[in-house]
Amino acid sequence: MRLRLAAGLLLATSTIAAAQDRSAPAGKPSRAAEKTAAEAQKDAVEAGTAVAPVEEREERSKGAVTVAGRRLPYTATAGTLTLRDTEGKPTASMFYTAYTLDGTQPGTKRPITFFYNGGPGSPTFWLHMGSFAPVRLKTGNPEFIRPAPYDFGPNPYTLLDKTDMVFLDAIGAGYSRPLGDMKPAAFYGVDEDADAFAKAILRYATKFGRWNSPKFLFGESYGTLRSGALAYQLQDRGMALNGVVLLSSIMNYGYRQPGLDQVYLNYLPSYAATAWYHNRLVNRPADVATVVQQAREFATGPYMSALAKGQNISDAERDQVAEGISRLIGLSPDFIKRANLRIDLPRFQKELLRGTRQTVGRFDSRYTGTDSDAAGERPETDVSSDAISGAFIATFNDYTTHTLGYKTDMPYRLSARDAAGWTWNWKHDAPNRMGQQNNPNTAIDLAAAMRANPYLQVLSMNGWYDMATPFFGTENDLGHMMLEPGQRANLRFVYYPAGHMTYLNPEALVAMKRDLSDWYDRAVAVARSGTPPVAPSIAAAGPTPN
Description:
The chain is of the alpha/beta class.
């Protein structure tokens, strides 16, 4: 995502367990398969290469955090899960960090949530260090986090009071690696990646007895695209989920193809929110939600109509639409017309504060930076990424090594893209025989899972100032899942005064914890009641401000 840069009540028979994971063996792996992987690992070690372990590792430590006056002792486990093919051959080692409330036993009905970042190819130290784990790097204003020492410690906004948590690193990222003679291409793709995460989650549930726990997914950025595919894959393998959290979503990459206009519609409300924040509007509303709603209505009305006409638009309509856009996003009508009414993101970042010689961030447009060339076409860097990366990387490395006690000679990859031979297979096999997509849209997969499971709750969490995955694009993606009214009752939208990593803003973090606590309670209660939610009215079913 950044830095070029997230045996309890298990069905008893091995035959049924194999059906639950269609790509897992029914019995123990063959000795030949183990030997082949072990020999490959041995060859690598003899060559001086640090490799991931075939045997699963666990490094456990104890901690405690206080939430709303309640002390929560927990066990932190940094370890690996070994993924296997249908013959039992080890194929990959996935690194994870789990936080389990002390006293939790196999077979528990306590919820568990699996977290991951996006990329594709990003490890999950961003969510791990910044959001809802029992520990957190403290962040504040949209400015550069000062160098070490960093303010890192217990997190009073952790979700440990509601759920156990497992943070998973994608294969090729962090400490996760292919094993033996497996090629990275076996994991570097939309479906390949989702399959690896499905195997890891199934393995964790089996190893630690969590099949009877209410289960949740929590993905950020590309991790939301993964969640759509993963929710369907897990359900298809016998693991029905209770809920999916989509943070800063991008579930449909089709809109980002050159020549398509939907991306400009998707960005308009985010541009408007950013212009509002930086006080670039002539008639600035009292709150950001007001200008966002104005931009939504303009985007689906005059703007959509104008873009659809292409070069055949009249001069009068072009002038009128340019004036309307200018009032919303703070750029001059002349600049907008010269851009053919289509404002690319880098141009907006550079142009909005042109007179001040500043640019705005991409991941979080509240951040401002200064380029060496104030006359340039696009920002020279993303200040919102530069401002936080060093603190997150340093904190994670220190915490994992010295507190969690996980030590290895392997480098912690900040992105799988740093490995030789990186390439990503964007093809996706959509469910229900809908065919192969060249540009994935896994909102289709999520919709299929929601139709099959009437109890599956989905929470879409969005930042007003996120210009990496604009919230209006998320509304469009999830608004085209073609859910029936009863299924739409399971989908909720919330918004925060923050960027892509909404939890960086302490004000937003407090609101997120409140919203998530209520949502977890509802998701668990709905499943236990045996009664699916009541369908809302059509007017109430769409996105509403937080």
